[in-house]
TrEMBL record:
PROSITE patterns: ELMO. Transmembrane segments: none annotated. PANTHER family: ENGULFMENT AND CELL MOTILITY, ENGULFMENT AND CELL MOTILITY PROTEIN 3. GO terms for biological process: actin filament organization; apoptotic process; cell motility; phagocytosis. Involved in cytoskeletal rearrangements required for phagocytosis of apoptotic cells and cell motility. Acts in association with DOCK1 and CRK. Was initially proposed to be required in complex with DOCK1 to activate Rac Rho small GTPases. May enhance the guanine nucleotide exchange factor (GEF) activity of DOCK1. This is ELMO3 protein. It comes from the Eukaryota. GO terms for molecular function: SH3 domain binding. Residues 284-457 form the ELMO domain.
C-alpha cells in the first residue's frame, strides 16, 4: 500500500487488477482484530505487516443494512440487525448509517415491536454501539422508546441478555440530563434494581449495580440521602457483604469499583454534619452536649435543682465539662465551632456515650480522677479523631473514576463510621497511657493513632472485630519498632568517602534499573480503556518485543492475563517514537471537557507520540507503580533519563544494599571525612627485591 497515493487511486488499482467495476463501491478494511475501515484520516495508523482486505464500502453496507432492517422477511431482518450490531463498532460505518436516519429505524423496531428474542437483542446491541460514538445526543430519545427500554428491565419473562443491554442503555442515559435521570428514577424502582442485584447471572448483577451507581451519582444530595436510607431499610449492605464480597466467584475490577463508589457515597452522607459548626442557640444541639455530661456524671447531676444557686450550678457544670476534656469548659460549644469536623464530632461522642455507656464512663472517670497531668481529654481527642477519620476515609471528597479500594468491613457493619470511632477513641486512651503522655504531647499521640489506624486499614480487615484486634495489637512499642526498622532502611552513612563511593556506584545501578524496566515492558501490562462519558470495561494489552525494537498492542478479552505477542495485531516501531507525554499534556486528558478533571486519571495518564503525523497511543495505567515502570521504560527507549519517583526509590534501595555490603568490614569503625595523608615517598627504592638475578 503506497501511503503517498490517495485511497481512491489505491482502490481503483486494486479493482482494476481484479477486473472489478465501480471502485467507489469498495473499501479497504483490516483483515484481523476489530476489522476497522481504512479512511484518509486513519490510514497513517496502518503498521507494516498489517493485512488489509477489499470489502464493500461503508456507505454501501450502510445502505444495504438500512434496507435490510426494514425487510418484511424475519430472517433477513434478523441477519441485517446482527451484522449491524457488529459493524456499528466502526466509526466510519456508524457515521454513514446515522446519516441515513438509521437510528430512526432502530427506534421504530423497538417502539413498535413486541419481540423479545434474538432480533431485539441485536437491535439493542446495535443501538448501544451507535450511541457510543457520540454523534447523537441521548436527549433526542423519545418517551415511547425510553419506556420500552424500561419495560424490558421491569419485565420478568425477558431474556437476561436483553435486560443487560437495557440496563446498560439506561446507565448511559442517566448522567446526560436531569430530565432523563428523573424519568429513569421514576420508572425503574430501587426494588426492581435490588431484584436484579440478587440474580445469579453475574453480568446482570453487574449492570444493575452500574445503573444504581449512575442514579446515586446523578441525584441531588437530598435524593441521594433518601435513596441510601431506602437501600439501608432493604438490607443492601448485608446482601452485598454475603452474596457479592463473600461469593464463591472472585470480585471483578468493575464490581470492586462500584462497591468503592457505594462506600464513598454512603460515607459522604456525613459531609453535611462534618461541615456544620455548633450553633450555641440550637436547643437540640445544646441538649446533645448536656447529655454527654449527664451520662458521665449521672449521680452527681441528680441533686435537686433548689440545692445549689445558679452560680454554683454553673460552676459545677464547668468543672464537669473540664473533666470531659473540653478546652473551653465554661462554653464547650466553642470547641465544636471548628468545621470540619463540626457536629460530626458531637454525633460520634453522643453515639459512643449511648451505645457503649460502660466504656464511655470508664474513659471519663479514669481520666478525670487523675491529677498527675496525664489525663487524656475525651472531648478534645474525639474532635481530632473525627477529623483524622474523615481524612483517612476521604469524606467530602468526590468519587474517583477508577479507584477500587473499598473496605470489606464497611459492608459488614451498620453505622460503620460511628462504630469505627468507638473502637478508635478507646485506642486513643490506650495509646495515651502507653506513651505516658501529658497535654503537651497531644499532637504526638494523635499522630501515632493516625499511624495505627492507617497501617491496620491497609491490611484490609474483613470485619470491625478483626480491625479492633489488629489495631489494639499494634501498640506504641510496635509502632516504634516499625518506625525504627523503616528508619534503618532509609539511613545511610553520610561520610565524604561513602558519598564518593555512592556516586561511583550510581551509573552501574542505574543501568540495572534500566534493564529491569525494559524487562517489565517485555512482559507487558493489561490496560483499561476509559472514555469521556463513562468507565469502560474494554481491555487492551501492550508489550515490548524481546529485541526492544517494536511495541505490540491490541484489544483482549476479560480474563486474559498474558496474551502471546503474535495475538497483538497493532505495532509501533521504537524508531518511530518521538516523545512521551504525561498527565495534563496527554491528548486523552485534554479531550475530557467535563471541567472537573479526575485527579487520579491525570496522575496515571501517559501517551506516546509516534510517526510523522504525530499520532498518539494513549494509556491510563492501572496503578501508580505501573505508571512509573512504563514511563521509565519508554524514556529508556527514547534515550532519555528515567524521571519517575520509583526510579529514585529503587536507586536508593540498591545503593543502600550495595553500600552496606561494601562497608561490612568497616562496622563500628568511624570513617573520617578527609582521607589520611599520603606519606612522602622514601629517599631510595633499594628495598625492592631484584628479580633479575635468578637464585642459584
Amino acid at each position: 500500500l503506497s501511503q503517498t497515493k490517495p485511497l481512491a487511486s489505491v482502490l481503483k488499482d486494486v479493482c482494476d487488477a481484479w477486473s472489478l467495476p465501480n471502485a467507489e463501491r469498495y473499501a479497504l478494511q483490516y483483515a484481523d482484530g476489530r476489522q476497522t475501515y481504512i479512511t484518509e484520516s486513519n490510514r497513517r495508523d496502518i503498521k507494516n505487516g498489517s493485512i488489509l482486505r477489499l470489502t464493500t464500502s461503508p456507505d454501501q453496507e450502510a445502505e444495504q443494512l438500512y434496507i435490510g432492517i426494514q425487510s418484511k422477511n424475519v430472517d433477513v431482518k434478523t441477519d441485517s440487525l446482527k451484522k449491524l450490531a457488529s459493524l456499528s463498532q466502526d466509526i466510519t460505518f456508524a457515521q454513514e448509517f446515522i446519516s441515513r436516519n438509521g437510528l430512526k429505524q432502530i427506534y421504530s423496531i423497538v417502539e413498535e415491536g413486541n419481540d423479545t428474542g434474538e432480533m431485539l437483542a441485536h437491535t439493542l446491541k446495535a443501538f448501544t454501539e451507535l450511541m457510543e460514538h457520540d454523534f447523537v445526543s441521548w436527549e433526542n430519545l423519545s418517551t415511547v422508546f425510553i419506556k420500552k427500554i424500561v419495560s424490558y428491565v421491569n419485565m420478568n419473562a425477558v431474556d437476561a441478555s436483553i435486560q443487560q443491554l437495557s440496563l446498560s442503555i439506561l446507565e448511559n442515559m442517566v448522567p446526560t440530563s436531569r430530565l432523563l435521570f428523573e424519568v429513569v428514577k421514576k420508572e425503574v424502582t430501587l426494588d426492581r434494581l435490588l431484584t436484579h442485584l440478587q440474580a445469579t447471572n453475574a453480568q446482570l448483577q453487574l449492570k444493575a449495580m452500574a445503573l444504581l451507581i449512575a442514579l446515586l451519582l446523578s441525584a441531588t444530595d437530598a435524593e441521594r440521602r433518601d435513596m441510601m436510607d431506602y437501600l439501608r431499610e432493604k438490607n443492601i449492605r448485608q446482601f452485598i457483604h454475603k452474596n457479592i464480597i463473600h461469593s464463591s466467584e472472585p470480585l471483578g475490577d468493575e464490581m470492586a469499583h462500584y462497591l468503592y463508589v457505594l462506600q464513598s457515597v454512603s460515607l459522604n452522607l456525613c459531609e453535611h454534619r462534618m461541615k456544620m459548626s455548633m450553633d450555641a442557640f440550637s436547643q437540640e444541639q445544646r441538649d446533645l452536649l448536656q447529655s454527654l455530661r449527664q451520662t458521665a456524671f449521672e449521680s452527681e447531676s441528680e441533686v435537686p435543682a433548689g440545692t445549689f444557686s445558679t452560680e454554683r450550678r454553673r460552676s459545677l457544670c464547668a468543672k464537669e465539662f473540664r473533666k470531659l476534656g473540653f478546652m473551653n469548659n465554661s462554653n464547650p460549644a466553642d470547641d465544636l465551632r471548628r468545621a470540619p469536623p463540626g457536629l460530626l464530632a458531637l454525633d460520634n461522642m453522643v453515639y459512643f456515650s449511648r451505645n457503649t455507656p460502660n466504656a464511655y464512663s470508664r474513659f471519663i472517670l479514669e481520666n478525670s480522677s487523675r491529677e498527675d497531668k496525664h489525663e487524656c481529654p475525651f472531648a478534645r481527642s474525639s474532635i481530632q479523631l473525627t477529623l483524622i477519620l474523615c481524612e483517612i476515609l476521604h469524606i467530602g471528597e468526590p468519587c474517583s473514576e477508577t479507584a477500587q479500594a473499598f473496605y470489606p468491613m464497611f459492608f459488614g457493619q451498620d453505622h460503620f463510621f460511628e462504630e469505627l470511632f468507638c473502637i478508635c477513641i478507646q485506642l486513643v486512651n490506650k495509646t495515651w497511657k502507653e506513651m505516658r503522655a501529658t497535654q503537651e504531647d497531644f499532637d504526638k499521640v494523635m499522630q501515632v493513632v493516625r499511624e495505627q489506624i492507617t497501617r491496620t486499614l491497609s491490611l484490609k480487615p474483613t470485619s470491625l472485630e478483626l480491625f479492633k484486634t489488629r489495631v489494639n495489637a499494634l501498640n506504641y512499642s510496635e509502632i516504634l519498632k516499625l518506625r525504627q526498622t523503616e528508619r534503618l532502611h532509609q539511613e545511610e552513612t553520610l561520610a565524604v568517602p561513602v558519598l564518593e563511593l555512592r556516586e561511583k556506584l550510581k551509573p552501574e545501578l542505574l543501568e540495572l534499573i534500566r534493564q529491569q524496566r525494559l524487562l517489565h515492558l517485555c512482559e507487558g501490562t493489561l490496560f483499561r480503556k476509559i472514555s469521556s462519558r463513562r468507565r469502560q470495561d474494554k481491555l487492551w494489552y501492550c508489550r515490548l518485543s524481546p529485541n526492544h525494537k517494536v511495541l505490540h498492542y491490541g484489544d483482549v478479552e476479560e480474563g486474559v492475563q498474558s496474551p502471546p505477542i503474535e495475538s497483538l495485531t497493532e505495532k509501533i516501531p521504537v524508531a518511530d517514537m518521538k516523545m512521551l507525554l504525561v498527565g495534563k499534556e496527554c491528548p486523552h486528558t485534554k479531550e475530557k471537557s467535563s471541567g472537573k478533571q479526575n485527579k487520579d486519571v491525570l496522575e496515571l495518564a501517559f501517551s506516546i507520540v509516534h510517526d510523522v503525523e504525530e499520532c498518539c497511543l494513549n494509556f491510563v495505567a492501572p496503578t501508580r507503580y505501573e505508571f512509573c515502570l512504563w514511563t521509565d521504560g519508554l524514556n529508556v527507549l527514547l534515550g532519555k533519563e528515567m524521571t519517575s519517583e520509583r526510579t529514585q526509590t529503587d536507586l536508593d534501595v540498591l545503593l543502600s544494599m550495595e553500600l552496606k555490603l561494601r562497608l561490612l568490614d568497616l562496622e563500628n569503625i568511624s570513617i573520617p571525612d578527609d582521607p589520611p595523608p599520603i606519606p612522602k615517598p622514601p629517599s631510595n627504592l633499594n628495598f625492592c627485591y631484584d628479580f633479575s638475578h635468578a637464585e642459584q
